[in-house]
Design brief:
The chain is mainly alpha-helical. The protein has a domain of about 50 residues. It is about 30% helix and about 0% strand. It has two helices and no strands.
Length: about 70
Amino acid sequence: MTQKGQALEFEAQIAPDQTLPLPEDVAEHLVPGQRVRVILLLETSEDVDWDRLTAEEFLKGYAESDAVYDKL
């Protein structure tokens, strides 16, 4: 049986030299020489379109009268 560890999630962009930079707040959780399992989820233009559509549809349900709740 394999014990599953902690998962760290972050967004990054592949560097020109084909490396993947780690944000400082992620790197601080790692120990040099530590084994990790890497899973890459590639963002596509379709993902961006779905994110935009989701946000637009969500905001359609927001009315100015809802602003009263922003002050709570």
